[in-house]
Amino acid sequence: MANFWKNIKQPIFALAPMEDVTDTAFRELMLKISDSTKLQVLFTEFTSVDGMNHPVGRVRVSERLVVSEEERTLLKSTGVKLVAQIWGSKPELFHSVTKLITEEYDFDGIDINMGCPVKNVVKNGACSALIGDPERAKEIVLATKEATHLPVSVKTRTGIREHITEEWMTHLLSVKPAAITLHGRTQKMMSEKPANWEEVGKASLLRHALEPEIPMLGNGDVWTYQQGVDYCKQYHLEGIMIGRGIFQNPWFFNPERDVPMQKEKLQTLINHVDIFDRVWTGTKNFNLLKRFFKIYANGFDGAGALRGKLMETRNPEEVRILLQDYLA
């Protein structure tokens, strides 16, 4: 398979892999409400190679790699790429699980998570902990590349306790990932302090000097599509990855449309609930949907009271009944 990162239209805009957010239901919704010329790459939730390698654990962990028939149809019709993101600390498991994913699934690429700062993940030497173990990190990239014909990219941060951007990027660039997404924060910063885009810019300039063919995406505190376009120019990037910005505006990737009114927001909430119901009822807990309610029930009179009622619902049908009066 060709490396789509080399042929994709720039600036590249991608929706970040997010835990309990970017499942097939939410991705399907994004494909339906976005402009496919503005959203080019989607990612799965991050998937443990240890879990995928375990005969019992794999059953539950593999839910993160589910792609519904409806999502697959939309991917094909829009040309949007879908990348499986994986994480762990053992090169041999990255090799075996990447081989399994390549043979048993249908993704356009593999992405390695070297950025998640959550303590119970990094204490096992995975994700952003790999910034402090560059030799192991390079082994992981090489083992993953060896196991697949798919392009292998990396998402990471600028350091652990302090920015070591250029040193860390030099290590990563030496093993030639297909693309790099750099979050402008260290592990210690979590998401609490503003992203440092000057560090992202440093990384991009170094990449231009060492491996100019490798596209680089920036990530962190991008709230509008135009801001992303401007950052690409300012920091010499090929693209932008959007994370928390999608919670402020689910229509982020459709920037030329008018701001949705109350009825459209709530109808979109029902659409999301319907997709979740179709894909996950009987498999996933309905309460996972509740983190999304605030992104639709906002910006109109009575939105706060409605959110309170929505949080009390127990299943998709109760959401539909509750919203009937608001959509009348």
Protein architecture, described:
The structure is a single chain. The protein is an alpha/beta fold and 328 residues long. The protein has helices at residues 4-7, 24-33, 49-53, 57-61, 69-78, 91-104, 119-122, 134-146, 165-174, 197-210, 225-234, 245-248, 262-280, 293-296, 303-310, 316-327; strands at residues 12-15, 41-43, 47-48, 81-87, 109-114, 152-157, 180-183, 216-219, 239-242. The chain is 45% helix and 12% strand. An 8-stranded parallel barrel has the order 1-2-4-5-6-7-8-9, surrounded by 4 helices. Helix 6 (91-104) packs parallel to helix 8, helix 8 packs parallel to helix 9 and helix 13 (262-280) packs antiparallel against helix 16.
Index terms:
16 helices; eight-stranded parallel barrel; alpha/beta; 328 residues; 12% strand
Helix and strand arrangement:
Elements (H helix, E strand, L loop, with lengths): L3 H4 L4 E4 L8 H10 L7 E3 L3 E2 H5 L3 H5 L7 H10 L2 E7 L3 H14 L4 E6 L4 H4 L11 H13 L5 E6 L7 H10 L5 E4 L13 H14 L5 E4 L5 H10 L4 E4 L2 H4 L13 H19 L12 H4 L6 H8 L5 H12 L1
Parallel strand pairs: 1-2, 1-9, 2-4, 3-4, 4-5, 5-6, 6-7, 7-8, 8-9
Helix pairs in contact: 2-5, 2-13, 6-8, 8-9, 9-10, 13-16
Q: What gap, in angstroms, lies between the N and C termini?
A: 49 Å
Counted by DSSP, the helix tally is 16
The number of strands is 9
Beta-strand residue percentage: 5-15%
Q: Structural class of the helix and strand makeup?
A: alpha/beta
Overall 3D shape: globular
Helix percent reads 40-55%
Record the strand order, biggest sheet: 1-2-4-5-6-7-8-9
Order of helices and strands: HEHEEHHHEHEHHEHEHEHEHHHHH
Unreliable residue stretches: none
Let me know the average pLDDT.
96
Task: Please tell me how large the radius of gyration is.
Answer: 20 Å
Major pleated sheet: 8 strands, parallel, barrel
